[in-house]
Amino acid sequence: MIKGEKIPAKAISTPESLSLVKGMAKAGRVVQVVGIVLTAYDLEQATEKSIKTGSVKPISAEVIRQAGGGFVTGAKIGTVAGAAVGVETGPGAVITGLIGGIIFGYAGYYGADWIADYIDEN
């Protein structure tokens, strides 16, 4: 095993980094609530279209778009991959993880949308 020196706690966590992480958590909650509202709106619109056309296809396609998990799965994979190819620790790992999450999340969402368009085009 490799023996290393003990790293002081203040090298990892500072009051500034704690307040930054808390701020990011609050922003994340706001984004989550907005996402839930937009999902409910999209499902409502698809339900109306299904009722109007007498077909289950619009609501089925929207469920695939929304609940298929394309964005979430892609974002998780991209975050891990981005952090893995980035620098070992510190803000660089967060930034590369964020960039990977955005790229893979985008690809996952539009991949699910592409599949859903075969059922019912939006």
Helix and strand layout, with pairings?
Layout: H1 15-53, H2 57-67, H3 70-85, H4 91-119
Helix pairs in contact: 1-2, 2-4, 3-4
Structure description:
This protein has 122 residues and is mainly α. It has helices at 15-53, 57-67, 70-85, 91-119. α2 packs antiparallel against α4. The relative contact order is 0.11. The model has no long low-confidence stretch (mean pLDDT 77).
End-to-end separation: 57 Å
SSE topology string: HHHH
**What coarse outline follows from CA principal-axis ratios?**
elongated
User: Approximately how much helix is present in the residues?
Assistant: over 70%
- H/I helix tally: 4
Return Rg in Å.
20 Å
Q: What's the total number of strands? A: 0
What are the low-pLDDT stretches, counting only 5+ consecutive residues below 50?
Answer: none
Nearest-integer average pLDDT: 77
Strand content: under 5%
Summary?
This protein is mainly α and 122 residues long. The chain has helices at residues 15-53, 57-67, 70-85, 91-119.
Features:
single chain; 0% strand; mainly alpha
